[in-house]
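thought: fold this chain, then report.
action: predict
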Amino acid sequence: MLVGMVFALVSLCHASSADAAPLRVRVRGTAKLTARASRDQPTPGVNELLLNGALTDDAGQPLALQPVIIRIAKEIDPHDARTASGVAGARGCERGADPGPGAAPAPRRGPMAWGITVSGGGDAPEVTAITDEDGRFCLRARLDPDRYKATLVYTPPAANVLVDGVEREVSFDLSRRGLALRFDPTPRVVQLDTPNTTVDAVAILDDDETPRVAPMLGLVLSNEKEELARGATDATGRARFVVPGAKLGAPGPGELRVSFAGDSETAGATHTEEIERHVKVAVKVPAADRGELTAGIPEDGIALLAEVGTSIGAPLSEGAIEARIGDVVVGAAPVERGIARLMLTFTGQGSEALVRLRYVAVSPWYEPLGEPTVRVPIRGPSLWSKAPILLAGLAVLAFFLVGRVSGQKQKPEPAPAKADGETREAKPRVDVVRPAERGQEGWTGCVVDAHEGTPVQGARVWVERGTFDGRSVLASVETDAHGRFTLPGIGGIAGDETIAAEARLHARLTQDLPAPGEIAIAIAQRRRALLARLVKWARRRGPPFDARPEPTPGHVRRAAGEELGTARWADAVERAVFGPGDVDAHAEQDVERLVPDDDKKAPEAAPRDIGRERDGR
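observation:
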């Protein structure tokens, strides 16, 4: 089997492929800007705007020391002079009042910006707020009771090439009481296959020093597309919504939004939370349920049709079904329009085989609902079907007999090493295909994807050696359109050299340098490497992070509980592995920076390229 695997890699290296240049996609994150404006009355008769918010990336990490531009205008008169005057006097949110000498400092009131500056003049001044270490900002401005609109803009500095900018508008009314809405508890994952889902919201009036609950307010619960339910707050300011699970929306990422339209005394308000809608996936074999499966020959392949659907009755068109006997995979097929057509191939004994079916999800919001077992009737092959095998065996026997008679006086060749007999796991590796002829130096070969087996164009392959200053590159080359490469000799091997390979979307592989000759290098995609690391980490940590059949980023995030760093890491892995776009070295490094401290490893130092230094490059 090992020889067959190496042969397959070499065959792929020599296969023809189009010489088209690869499509290069630059992966960037998106900034997220949240803000809320409310009325504050620090003293009777004084009316102030309190505007606070936060700036984060799409992984939830704060963007500290970043400028947020804020423009404020009255709705009925964007050029109102009194509004411009009030905005020009904007200031940061102070800490509590000074309690006097010797007393403990007052607690901090809300987020603080590192700096508030006002630029521009006339009727359109602009406020620049610099976010604090938590990505938060806050400002105050004395404005008349009226309706206003604030425009907030974040434009990343030129040095920040990983995040796109964002713009947001916030409307508010300072002539009415300020209202804050939130969910309690905050929903993160909702199950669509439950009969009913309960969501609680809380309404708080917070336009003075003493926030208080807001009873008898009519609230509306909706998702990103439609209204879901209505309710009114009770004496404690809470409103409870009971929504059928199937009504929450389609499986996948979405939103839950609670809103108040406003009345004569209280300003309107809206609060939104990002959620994931999960659903269970069921697998069944109708022919087996009806007892209509026909016995087949497992060595020739047995066809099996499985129906795949969610527990709320919707068919699926993603993921795959994997068939196992014990721990051995005997067949797999993609799910298309709720159907998976499997071909089971195995060595069978007896009259039936117990085949376990497992749904393999591509998206984390599709959760397998158990692993049903199917009794597949089997039968042995007929005598006539074995005739070609018997004839081939006789031919091989005759060949060896003739060779034995003709070569009795020759010294027998040493027997080759015995193969493992098992299929080699699809993992990054370097295989020696053929040693170099006497007098030949250097290495030739190809680089392929470890899982898909396709040639990797533009991969860098290099040989390096340890020095007092670290590691130095002795030879380096890039693969051509067919994944092929040729590395020159390095003038003798000392024994501590290594060979490494890496591509834009494939993680680095480093192994001891083999003897000169033809080699085959298999490297794994960076998204697969990130997922493999999370699985390995969860296995090492054990319960509750470990899970069967395999821990997923979603499971690790839920198991993290109060370990916020671990939850952020699992979120980042999930977005990188299952999200759109490519995962290059920058995206991989962004995820690696979130790895829990107990699993971080020192970054590899960049090796010196001696060959380039000799050439003056």
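thought: worth noting. Residues 285-377 form a domain with the Immunoglobulin-like fold (CATH 2.60.40).
final: tokens above.
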